[in-house]
């Protein structure tokens, strides 16, 4: 037997049960108090678990509570993270059409750029460039969808509009 208990299992008491949850697979298993003591003991001795309850053991494996001994769960998480970052074809664009804001928040990126808060608006040249940029994203099929955030004035929350590209 070359298997181990996943390091991403968590257990939480809930009412008259324990909830076993594997954070890697997002699988949830409710277990009553009486059975929990047995399950906890079996997870400490996988060969006995497999011999006594082969069907339950397979269910635990299928749900990710038990994994192959050579399976590097952390490397798997890192790979999934890289895939979500580098293979994502959604495009996120934040547009700030005016600097007419008087809040002067400490985290504001405008201050870092040395820009003064004033009543100027985005120039027609910048607007045209944005239009061309978005059109290029659509025509060249560089994005499956475009998420636009519009930030303006002293509005704290942004308006969010998602455009799904129809091919």
Structural overview:
The chain is 37% helix and 25% strand. It has two domains: 3-74, no CATH class; 89-164, no CATH class. It starts with a strand and ends with a strand. The protein has helices spanning 33-43, 46-52, 54-62, 73-86, 109-112, 124-139; strands at residues 3-5, 9-14, 17-22, 27-32, 66-68, 90-95, 145-150, 159-164. A three-stranded antiparallel beta sheet has the order 2-3-4. A three-stranded mixed beta sheet has the order 6-7-8, with no helix packed on it. It is built from six helices and eight strands.
Task: Write the SSE topology.
Elements: E1 3-5, E2 9-14, E3 17-22, E4 27-32, H1 33-43, H2 46-52, H3 54-62, E5 66-68, H4 73-86, E6 90-95, H5 109-112, H6 124-139, E7 145-150, E8 159-164
Helix pairs in contact: 2-3
Brief write-up:
With 167 residues, the chain is α+β, with helices and mostly antiparallel strands. Helices cover 37% and strands 25% of the residues.
List keywords for this structure.
25% strand, alpha+beta, 8 strands, 3-stranded antiparallel sheet, 3-stranded mixed sheet, elongated
